Records
---
Amino acid sequence: MQPRPSSRAALAALLLGVVATAQDTPHAFVGARIEPVGAPPIARGTLVVQGGRIVAVGAADAVAVPAGAVTVDVTGKTLIPGLVCSHSHIGSVAGADSSGPIQPEVRALDAIDPRDPGIQKAQAGGITTANVMPGSGHLLSGQTIYLKLRDGRTVDELTIKNADGGVAGGIKMANGTNPQRDAPFPGTRGKAAALVRAQLHRARDHQKKIAAAAGDASKLPDRNLGLEALVEVLEGKRVVHHHTHRADDILTVLRLQQEFGFRCVLHHVSEGGLVAAEIAAAKVPCSVIVIDAPGGKLEAVNLSMTTGAVLDRAGVLVGFHTDDGITDSRLFLRSGALAVRGGMDRDKALAALTIANARMLDLQDRIGTLAVGKDADFVVLTGDPFAVRTRVQQTWIEGKKVFDLDDPKDRVFANGGYGASDGQSMSMCCFQGGQQ
Amino acid sequence: MIAFALAWLAAVVPQEPVAVPTTTVAVRGGTVWTMAGEPIADGVVLVRDGKIAAVGRAADVAVPAGVQVLRAAVVTPGLIDAHATVGLTGMRNVPHDQDHVDRASAMQPELRAIDAFQARDELVAYLRGFGITTVHTGHSPNALISGQTMVVKTHGRSVERDVVKPLAMVAVTLGDGGRGSKGPGTRPKSVAMLREQLQKAKEYAARRQKDPDTAVDLGLDVLAQVIAREVPLLVTAHKANDLQAALRVAKEFDVLVVLDGAAEAYTLLPELQAAKCWVIPHPAMARTGGELANGTMELPKLLLDAGVPFALQSGYEGYVPKTRVVLFEAGVAVGHGLPAAAALRALTLDAARLLGVYARLGSLEVGKDGDLALFDGDPFEYTSHCVGVVVDGLVTAGAPR
């Protein structure tokens, strides 16, 4: 994905919200091993947070604990940035319905239930930010939403605001067999691409009409919610998050991306390893799913634990995602660990769970590493991030603790047990009788 | 030429089982978990003609000159998946590779796993790559009585060559999974239908004993073996009420019942202790929807603490992952409190005991099958690899997994 210059206004808007909710007493986390991501690990470090942001991070002997700070002893623990999941279906999300294959006007925002236990389970897995995507089975199933998994009563308390005050999110698309159904859905891959191209041409025309009006309200075209969302796609303001598995389907996405110039992240990319050079050349990042075995659908028979490693070596920006409920948010670290098993560099695998995903959501200036000025989103682990016995001990978002394994209620979300899933909407993205 | 052909096969068709014939092979491990006594530091297992010929410290076991020696940090018995559907639920998940349930009627105990198992499905070889040398597989938990299960090695040759036990259990499902358009429609109806069928089997067995010319009923014939306590019922159930129904039926008909899945078993620990019933807890990573909503990744640990005997499984999946990997499920159980030694026991000797194949499998002892798994570290660690697999003394080729 082509990086976009960060917007100061966006940052300011975000911080305004943060300052209002976070306590102003500095908190110093001392004694832990810190893996900041993007900087060398610190054997014994200090992390100071205040007002929802990181104000200092470094070796214990290099960072002074501010006077009056609350000191939290995390000796023996490991601190890493809050995990970022670039593709999730938590929070009772829904999107487009069965009325048509392309529904850009539909927003995930209008579906999110902040009390869905899937969100608490994700906190228990150390996830602090998630791209929550609407459903599946469409060429375009709606607008996605980037959520901070704060403890909130309403969806608004979980959103991230863009510079223009809008809700941050992308748009979800899919190809291959996923959107294939009876008309008006596509019956073939060729039809699928044609339907998408025709719609993007309509959006381009709409964009031209708006430009031609040159701010004169009387000359503006009629409002069209769907086309307006697609104009944002064409203008690079809204990233396309594209479900795609097979090598030829991946190349089709790249072809459309070339034709229309939208900014895009490839998701799942089961056969990405077969076209790694092409993906690298297109400079399109990949959000890879890690699943325990290949198959389950025809497009995933070549799925492999080595895909992350192969794409990374080819120079592709690689992230991982849970696709929750395909894999469990509580075990997100495991996706990175299995990628290491598959040959990926350890540091790259940790980046793939944090900063790489942040980049795919245009949030790299706010989250994804432990660095001064960034949001105080971090995870306290009991040990090495990729060790099977390591547990998420605490999860902090903007300086507030949202999960603690020692809290009996939180522990139920972490491990499971009676009531752990009460009211949870389990989304099996792409599940259609096992044929998709 | 043959070596070249084998190498070519291994390179081009990695999923194809490539067994290198050999009469004797030695496996040397930094730690050898024999599951019969303490682990051996720097141990050797000598396998001759498919059977274990010697086990001991490297200093004590003489390896004949010229014998191939495989080395690994950790060596365990070949792992046993105590309940899968692999081979009946093919990797592609299209109608022609799905033979795990026939929906013509609610109860079909006559459906044999051996008539459905596709030894060459890629997922059989995939599991073998992780050191799983034996699976208990068969009909899926999608009908009240979906059919039979069997125990089979993961060579991937043919069911005839690989089978260990052609009839292991009869698969029963209570709760949502056992309901269907052909009935039953409710929980009590499921139990009533099962009880009626067991009653018929009892009468059938008595009739057959009195008059051997009684017409054969394939289904009742199998259930008669259940009544005779020769074959257990594998009852998949998750809710506490369904688990209790299973125990009630077991008591009424004096049949052997193994509880499978059992998401809410932790609410019934005293009952399970009293019933002395084996449990095959659901995969630790099983999705927590529907009847598994109250499931916990700590279930194996809770069963261990309560002294309830258990083995571990990959289970049944309708979608992705089309098969789970029982080694991974055990790993997550280890991450949630199950000691590694207990997890390994569940994957080896306890599974072998549960499945009635302990005379051949489940530990590294002289005379048992030469099934071994080789790892470059802690087998349960996410970032370890399975670096070698031996099944019946045959070294199977493949990249580290």
---
Amino acid sequence: MLIRMIQTGLLAGFITAVIYSLIQSVTVTPIIYEAERYEVGSSIDHNSTKLATKDKGDYLREEIKRYSLTLLTNIVVSIGFAFLIVAGFVISKRKINPKEGIYWGIFGYFVFILFPALGLPPEVPGSVSTPVEGRQIWWVCTVFATSVGMGFGFFIKNTYVRLICIFVIILPHLIGAPNISDLKPGLVPLEIATHYVVWTLFTSLVFWIILGASSGMIYKRLSISSDN
Amino acid sequence: MGDNIQSVIVPSELQKDHTSRMTKAMSVTAIVIFGLSLVWFAGMTNAEYLHDGTHDTRHSLVFPCH
């Protein structure tokens, strides 16, 4: 069983990462690049390498390196998320197919993207924020609370349990994410930042749907072939 | 006679069921640990040399970043 789970995760994660990287390179990445032009001079400067390398060949090499590393990171993250989806398949004991996989993908989107984004909206490079460690703690707590709340709330059909689950889901938001209202505005124009938020939330949804569907499809295929 | 056969079969079936459930629980635990480790490594590590490579993914998939 573990072998089938690993195979599904590796394959679905890899396929999703490649497709997502292509989508990301024409949707989110151009906005990141645009925002980084305003990041010059701020405390964190991703443009320094670009400005330092005036030579066209060097610039191209830097770009290839950046896209390759992003693809590699996408593969690692996608495989990690696919493993979690497959664990969900096995725990739920439901009949797995691509459609069921999409439901799990949407579950992942709520847990890892949408609910954490309610407190910590997608940040374009150059935007100001509180120290990363504090935000990471809140992010992890929110992911945990949302997954527990949604998971138990869906599978345990009891009104009291479901009310507790709703409370668990909203608890991190009642406590509140690290506050940014005291900070000075960032350097990136609002137009770019809002554009970025919408594209990020949209492409992340596409990512989770592809990941769920491909996990469901591959898991189903491998289950059929191992049963025969 | 029939009772004797049943008393032999039932415990062994239970044993088999128990073993398969243990295997399943261990497999799920292992895969969750693998998955969380990969997500943590790529999305949450703040070391400078890793951050440069993971930067665009972290911003795109709404992980907290710098």
